[in-house]
Write a structure and sequence with these properties.
heterodimer; A: about 280 residues; alpha/beta; Rossmann fold; 2 domains; 6-stranded mixed β-sheet; 4-stranded antiparallel β-sheet; 10 strands; about 20% strand; B: about 425 residues; mainly alpha; ABC transporter involved in vitamin B12 uptake, BtuC; 3 domains; 3-stranded antiparallel β-sheet; 3 strands; about 70% helix; globular
Chain lengths: ~280, ~425
């Protein structure tokens, strides 16, 4: 792909951005973890957020998913087919998920003592509505809904390739499968944007390769855009359409993998010789 | 060999000597100031001999020298397991039900009373199980809702002459409101902090009942609470005892039914997920506040209903029935039985309520043995008697290309076919 093509591509996509973060700032007491950060994700795009340890990447995720309430700035989302420019900072994490942004965690946070299928079924929770009375009396509507939940969840597991573990407890899964289950669970919430926090952490090269393929497949088949934090440079460079680089809470660079590779500021701050090695 | 021998017997000997040191002040020092040793030694020797035999048997079994005896036993156990698993679950339920219904026919009033007590604690245990076992919120003030239910009936009956059957839903509703009131401010807390706060709330309710004389008649309590009516039929004491027993059977069946349905529902799954990981749960779109509050309120509702039956059964209530010790016993039932497991909680209630009754023979050491059994249980089965099994789903994938799947649930309640 030539530089011009990439440029045009990026430009046409940025026309319909689905996540728009403007001047996001987060202070913890006197410590400024995020400093006027700008970031956009366009439809059907895979965007990576990289930076040295402690740069504030996970804090950024926590701010845009409602776990933290940012001190300043705006987080705007424009779900495809719905009202654009919804401001979501300060709303609860479950409402963020309801509006279509689902995330995974850096250190796996599965529901350990539930089965694989049940983990995914939890993801369907916010798209269903039967309550206590429904649970006790089980009217046809609840039965239908339950059935739908099971079917949808199984379908997600099929896509991610975890059907062989369907009734296994989540804690008994091999590490790589646990990481993929987290993605499956997030995908079950029907998101338009998937936020992956170091999905390849702790994976071996083979698993990383499969993950690469899986993420591209999710983007292409499910039409879900992806924003990921990752330290595995090989994965980031091969996967992402655009890359943002952070250091000390500030955005220090933005661009295509090629641009980032050759950006002296980035090399100085973070990559060093690593990228050519 | 000798090393291994030492590794096992050394701590055992030290433990036994420590027990001796513990037993002597309990048994050897008399209130009148005299000291004795004989009784301590006899009791200690019995325990020593008993545990030594158990340990020896355990070691022999481990090394395989008991194979002659244990291998036929294993065969028997396997056969038994095979035949029992062949019998469908409903047969067991019917057998249990028939036994429960026939029970008053061949027992006296004392036995019926104890059985009703067990049933009351089963209901309380199952109610608390929703809060602790499913939603994972350690609630140490659960008995307060039981008190709310009991006092609602007693006071409404006293002042307005409202009958048992009117008060039952009313008390359940009030307990639910109380659950929401107490639950709401505690939602931000979890674990130890939640436990302390609920403990405090429980005590507050008890202290109000104890000190607000105009409202609750203080420590002297409320007497002459009528037993539940049965279409205006006058009942003797015996008949009323049996009647309340049957009422409790009905309530237990209802509770088991509801809890069973809840735990495999959308709400139940959300509770379990909340117990497992609160942050991930919210990030997956579950409303933490609402889910927690539902669990708290529902647990309280059950305590309120059982409270009404308790007041009607004893016909007299005072705040002494709603102390922290009661909360602790219900908590023990849930923990001992296995958090989240219905059968576990039922067995736990049987053990913890019947044990003190049957240990009356050893009146002096009753609580000591009770404590010992709890400690042993927690050492050997920290997860409780019966761990909650997760529901499994069967998917039969057809030949590749065929996209339809048959989905069958474990209990065979539903066959899903994907179109």
């Amino acid at each position: 792909m030539s530089a011009l093509e990439t440029f045009l591509n990026t430009d046409s996509k940025s026309m319909e951005s689905i996540l728009d973060v403007k001047q996001l700032t987060m202070d913890f007491g006197g410590l400024r973890a995020l400093d006027h950060l700008d970031l956009t994700v366009a439809r059907d795009e895979i965007v990576a957020l990289i930076g040295p340890n402690g740069a504030g990447k996970t804090t950024f995720f926590n701010c845009i998913t409602g776990i933290y309430n940012p001190t300043g700035g705006d987080v705007l989302i424009s779900p495809p087919g719905k009202m654009s420019g919804q401001r979501i900072n300060g709303i609860k994490p479950n409402h963020v998920t309801e509006r279509g942004m689902a995330r995974t965690f850096q250190n796996i946070r599965l529901f350990q003592n539930m089965t694989v299928l049940e983990n995914v079924m939890i993801g369907r929770h916010c798209r269903c509505k039967s309550g206590i009375a429904g649970a006790i009396f089980r009217p046809p509507s609840t039965r239908r809904e339950e059935k739908q939940i099971v079917e949808d969840s199984y379908e997600v597991l099929e896509k991610i390739g975890l059907t062989q573990f369907v009734n296994e407890l989540a804690k008994n899964l091999p590490y790589g499968a646990q990481r993929r289950l987290e993605i499956a669970r997030a995908l079950a919430t029907d998101p338009f944007l998937l936020l992956l926090d170091e999905p390849a952490a702790g994976m071996n090269p083979q698993e990383t390769l499969e993950l690469d393929e899986l993420i591209v497949r999710i983007r292409d088949q499910e039409k879900v855009s992806i924003l990921l934090i990752e330290h595995d440079m090989k994965l980031v460079m091969s996967l992402s359409d655009r890359i943002y680089v952070m250091d000390y809470g500030k955005r220090i660079a933005e661009g295509t993998p090629e641009e980032i590779k050759n950006n002296p500021v980035v090399i100085k701050a973070y990559l060093g010789e690593d990228i050519d090695a | 060999m000798i090393q291994e021998f030492k590794k096992i017997w050394k701590p055992y000997t030290i433990g036994m000597l420590w027990l001796l040191g513990l037993l002597w002040p309990l048994l050897g020092i008399h209130p009148d100031g005299t000291l004795s040793f004989a009784k301590t030694f006899t009791v200690w020797l019995y325990i020593f001999a008993g545990t030594a035999i158990c340990l020896a048997l355990y070691l022999m079994n481990k090394s395989g020298s008991l194979g002659v005896i244990s291998s036929p036993l294993d065969g028997v156990r396997q056969n038994l397991g095979r035949t029992t698993s062949k019998v469908p679950a409903w047969v067991w339920i019917v057998v249990l039900l028939v036994f429960a219904l026939a029970y008053p026919q061949f027992t006296n009033r004392y036995a019926q009373d104890v059985a009703t007590n067990v049933l009351i604690y089963i209901c309380l245990g199952l109610g608390l199980n929703i809060v602790i076992g499913l939603a994972g919120m350690l609630d140490l003030g659960y008995i307060a809702f039981y008190g709310v239910g009991a006092y609602t009936y007693a006071l409404l009956n006293l002042h307005y002459g409202m009958s048992f059957w009117v008060c039952l839903p009313f008390a359940a509703f009030l307990a639910m409101i109380a659950g929401c009131i107490i639950g709401y401010p505690t939602l931000r807390m979890r674990g130890d902090y939640l436990a302390i706060v609920t403990l405090g709330f429980g005590e507050i309710i008890r202290l109000i009942l104890e000190n607000w004389n105009e409202f609750s008649f203080g420590p002297s309590g409320i007497a002459n609470i009528p037993r539940p009516g049965f279409f205006g039929v006058d009942m003797s004491l015996e008949a009323a005892t049996v009647y309340i027993y049957f009422l409790m059977i009905g309530l237990v069946i209802f509770t088991v039914f509801v809890v069973n349905r809840l735990q495999n529902s959308r709400i139940g799954r959300a509770w379990i997920a909340l117990r497992e990981d609160e942050i991930a749960c919210q990030a997956m779109g579950i409303d933490k506040t609402r889910t927690k509050l539902t669990a708290f309120a529902l647990g309280a509702t059950w305590a309120g209903m059982v409270g009404v039956i308790f007041a009607a059964k004893t016909t007299f209530i005072n705040p002494a029935s709603f102390t922290f010790l009661e909360s602790a016993i219900i908590l023990s039932i849930v923990v001992l039985g296995g958090m989240g497991s219905i059968i576990g909680v039922i067995i736990g209630a049987f053990i913890l309520i019947l044990l003190p009754e049957y240990l009356r023979a050893f009146s002096d050491f009753r609580m000591l043995m009770f404590g010992a059994i709890m400690v042993i249980m927690m050492v050997f089965r920290p997860g409780g008697l019966i761990q909650m099994p997760r529901r499994t789903y069967k998917f039969k994938s057809e030949s590749p290309g065929d996209t339809s799947h048959q989905v069958a649930t474990e209990g065979g309640q539903a066959d899903f076919a994907r179109s």
